[in-house]
């Protein structure tokens, strides 16, 4: 217990320093020292920016067009949803290999309920999410209460739910789905309210972008003021200003691409869903008791048990949550394709795992952030999209993605050895 408490006073979730610092009155630690201590967290965002700029140049400016940015968001939305749950699983020291099969199974069941049985689309979606929770309970029971390693349980689940998908569909596809169902995966917010033919901008998108910008600046200022009031280590003023200006510019530019630029179609509905998930799960992981328990279990499971944390309950709830998110990803993917097929969800689990590790999650657990996993997923998405725009073949794309994953894990190992040294 003392070991756990000592660790908690030195670092917060994801390895964020939390102890008092004598230089707080001067605005925090030096920029070099700060950047070095946050290299794991900051590096992925720098890498994302570099990759975007690289492919923007290599594709002759085609990457950052309004239509292509919308495609990147929509095409990678289900992987980003899975990455949110996957990074939580990895932080706790587990892995889930079944999420692709679960997504396919839930998509198939939703097709049977809505298309074949004529159930209302909203009820079919609700029951599909409940089914995802039941699947998560099934796997969580074996991991948390029987004690079978998650790798084995979810490997079995990958085969089990893939088989159930094929049995449900009878090796055929179910299509078409209702318009309302398809909107979740590929629709836009109120597309007819401000049509491009009669409006210079999609004002809903502009308003959402302005609101997001204000909330971002206010949250950053309040967070910095709160840490200063508590005499906790704060980031350097230079970095704080850079983050405010850079983040604000990114939000403004994305708003321009989605709502004002030629070819813009407004805000994808799935982007709103992703924003809610990112904010909600980031808050849970950084500010709730449950989130701190996840980090404690991943950092030292034995110490977490001795401190009184119900590790079985936490593990069980993690897999229930993963089941619900896998179900949501399956619904989004099925809606985007307007089809539920037996081959859906193939390799989704590998993309979600890769996004988590590229985003800074530690292989041994205990370290990682939801925002980092989203950034890792966007790195994979930009790589896929950029190489496709360049006409690079699929086999070369797979090679490059595998190399990026290997380098990300190697960087994690190097960074950990450097910190110990």
Automatic annotation (TrEMBL):
**Coiled coil segments of this chain:** none
Q: Cross-referenced Pfam families, in alphabetical order?
A: BPD_transp_2
State the membrane topology: Multi-pass membrane protein
Q: What is its main location?
A: membrane
Q: PANTHER family from the entry?
A: ABC TRANSPORTER PERMEASE PROTEIN YPHD-RELATED-RELATED, XYLOSE TRANSPORT SYSTEM PERMEASE PROTEIN XYLH
- Which key words are in the record? Cell inner membrane, Cell membrane, Membrane, Sugar transport, Transmembrane, Transmembrane helix, Transport
Keyword Zinc recorded: no
Subcellular location(s) per record: Cell membrane
Instruction: Please describe what this protein does.
Output: Part of the binding-protein-dependent transport system for D-xylose. Probably responsible for the translocation of the substrate across the membrane.
The organism is Microbacterium mcarthurae
Protein name, entry field: Xylose transport system permease protein XylH
Instruction: Give yes or no: UniProt keyword Signal.
Output: no
Give TM segment ranges: 42-65, 77-95, 101-134, 141-161, 200-218, 238-259, 265-284, 316-337, 370-392
């Amino acid at each position: 217990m003392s070991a756990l408490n000592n660790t908690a006073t030195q670092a917060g979730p994801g390895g964020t320093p939390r102890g008092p610092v004598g230089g707080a009155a001067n605005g925090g630690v030096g920029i070099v020292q700060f950047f070095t201590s946050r290299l794991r967290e900051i590096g992925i965002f720098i890498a994302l920016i570099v990759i975007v700029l690289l492919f923007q140049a290599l594709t002759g400016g085609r990457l950052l067009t309004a239509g292509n940015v919308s495609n990147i968001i929509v095409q990678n939305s289900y992987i980003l949803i899975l990455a949110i749950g996957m990074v939580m699983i990895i932080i706790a020291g587990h892995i889930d290999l079944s999420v692709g099969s679960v997504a396919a199974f839930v998509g198939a069941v939703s097709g049977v309920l809505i298309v074949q049985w004529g159930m209302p689309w909203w009820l079919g979606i609700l029951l599909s999410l409940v089914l995802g929770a039941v699947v998560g309970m099934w796997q969580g029971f074996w991991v948390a209460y029987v004690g079978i390693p998650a790798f084995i349980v979810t490997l079995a689940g990958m085969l089990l739910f893939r088989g159930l998908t094929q049995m449900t569909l009878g090796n055929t596809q179910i299509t078409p789905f209702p318009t309302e169902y398809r909107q979740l995966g590929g629709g836009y917010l109120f597309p007819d309210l401000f049509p491009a033919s009669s409006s210079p901008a999609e004002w809903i998108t502009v308003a959402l972008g302005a609101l997001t910008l204000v909330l971002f600046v206010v949250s950053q200022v309040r967070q910095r003021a709160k840490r200063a009031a508590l005499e906790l280590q704060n980031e350097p003023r230079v970095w704080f200003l850079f983050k405010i200006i850079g983040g604000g510019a990114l939000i403004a530019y994305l708003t321009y691409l989605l709502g004002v630029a030629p070819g813009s179609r407004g805000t994808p509905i799935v982007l709103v869903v992703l924003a809610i998930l990112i904010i909600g799960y980031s808050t849970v992981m950084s500010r709730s008791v449950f989130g701190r328990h996840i980090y404690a279990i991943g950092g030292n499971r034995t110490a977490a048990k001795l401190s009184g944390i119900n590790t079985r309950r936490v593990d069980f709830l993690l897999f229930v949550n993963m089941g619900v998110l896998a179900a949501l990803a399956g619904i989004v993917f099925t809606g985007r394709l307007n089809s539920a097929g037996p081959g859906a969800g193939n390799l989704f689990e590998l993309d979600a795992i890769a996004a988590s590790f590229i985003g800074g999650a530690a292989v041994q657990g205990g370290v990682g952030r939801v925002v980092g996993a989203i950034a890792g997923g966007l790195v994979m998405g930009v790589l896929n999209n950029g190489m496709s725009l360049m006409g690079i073949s699929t086999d070369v794309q797979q090679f490059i993605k595998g190399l990026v994953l290997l380098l990300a894990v190697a960087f994690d190992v190097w960074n950990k050895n450097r910190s110990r040294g």
